[in-house]
Specification:
CATH architecture of one domain: 3-Layer(aba) Sandwich
Helix content: 40-55%
Strand content: 15-25%
Order of helices and strands: HHEHEHEEHEHHEHHHE
Amino acid sequence: MSLTDEGHYGPKQLNMLKVIWGEGYLSPGGSEEIDEIIGDLDLSNKKILDIGCGTGGAVFHLLEKHNAAEAIGFDPEPLVIEKATELAAQKNLSKKAKFQCIEPGPIQVDNESMDVVFSKEAFIHIPDKHELMKDIYRVLKPSGLLAVGDWMRNDNGPPSEQMKEYIKAEGLDYFMCSLDKYKEVLESSGFKVISMTDRNQWYLEKVRKEVEQIEGPLWRKVVDAIGPEEGAYALDIWKKLLGVVEKGEHCPGNFRAIKI
């Protein structure tokens, strides 16, 4: 069984994540974690590219709270782009928020055309971090900003059997590296690192609460969204996730950098 019924993010997966993480979000923490990633960066009147935009939650937040001028969201999943476009219309943001379904590979925007590149829990699906950072460097304007949150590991060695079991249960392509590895890749690509933040302890508390919620007050909503059998499978995934976060191997992190 897998919740990834149509592509990586099919209807079941989207329904489940909406129950747990809210409308527009395919990763944990919502708008508060987006603010954590952005920190004190000034995004006023900036043009932003969101790589792996999902259903648009981050794009809408960056426009509405951080006063970005416009934002483009890229994602390879047709269903999430369709949903993001619908939500943009509902929020009257269609003129500022544009979403495109793209094939994995080089970023399909012009050189030095973006003020900011943002991403949240999407780089985990991209195997070659060096090529990714070089391409981001290319599309950013001089002094352009990069702000990213990603699911990482505590080191760059082979994953444990427990981690392999969790990843297999997810049914997704995960290419995880450490925060230290990201720092090395950023600097070798020409970026100056502004900040690197380990978010394991924050996420440990969050995923514990999510397990409690799924087993308790959210269970009926989960069943209504995806059915009892799929709900039980999703709960098992969350418990496997909690296990690797508790041992510190699954170690989410945030970083900010500037093109120099």
